[in-house]
Amino acid sequence: MENTVTALEPSPEATTGDNEPATKQIPPAAVARMTLYLRALNSLLAEGVERVSSEALAEASGVSSSTLRKDLSYVGSYGTRGVGYEVQYLSRHIAAALGLTHDWKVAIVGAGNLGKALARYGGFESRGFDVVAIFDADPMVIGNEVGWLRVSDSAELERVLERTHTNMVVLALPATVAQAVCDRVIAAGIRSILSFAPVLLQVPPHVNLRKVDMATELQILAYHAQRAQTPGQAV
């Protein structure tokens, strides 16, 4: 089942009794594109740009203008004909629609090469994600420092998740242990999981699971590369 994201819809006619905007759902494909718009808007903010046209924002995001306008209708139409979009205002509302204004505390389970690389990545904090813990079961790894974090014993997973108020978990684990650890994470109350494990995990309907399979993506890339090299084949 595909997940959807609830977005703010600032229509004056559709508000709650507390004057809060009503909500509508964003299709999964549009959610993915929203992240592109937000990245482009943040780049414009860094350059001091105050307004941007739909054509310029669409080009910076790699989509068509019609797709951009349709997607932005899910968070309300903030553009002005002939003037464009106010960059800071639109960025703020897209971030709110994606849930990036919440306090997201992330734990990484698995302190191998991938887990350590993720823990050291500086881009999470600027996007609203605070990596608060990293775990491993290897006695030779437990206690080592990864960036500013110290690797915790996975035997203490539940206790540390509670202490750090973690609400998102990244699984950077081998396939053989991924499901068992996933079950523990869910039992500890985590409802949002990103898995790099090369296995299909089973989770309850109330848990949001996203899977990143780099081998699969490389296979798809190889397919398109092969077709591009074959005369008469369209990519």
From TrEMBL:
GO molecular function per UniProt: DNA binding; DNA-binding transcription factor activity
InterPro entries named in the record: CoA-bd (IPR003781), NAD(P)-bd_dom_sf (IPR036291), Rex_actinobacterial-type (IPR058236), Rex_DNA-bd_C_dom (IPR009718), Tscrpt_rep_Rex (IPR022876), WH-like_DNA-bd_sf (IPR036388), WH_DNA-bd_sf (IPR036390)
Annotated region of DNA binding: 36-75
GO BP term (any one): response to redox state
GO cellular component: cytoplasm
A Pfam family that the UniProt record links to this protein: Put_DNA-bind_N
Free-text function comment from the UniProt entry: Modulates transcription in response to changes in cellular NADH/NAD(+) redox state.
Protein name: Redox-sensing transcriptional repressor Rex
Phylogenetic placement of the source organism: Bacteria, Bacillati, Actinomycetota, Actinomycetes, Micrococcales
Gene that specifies this protein: rex
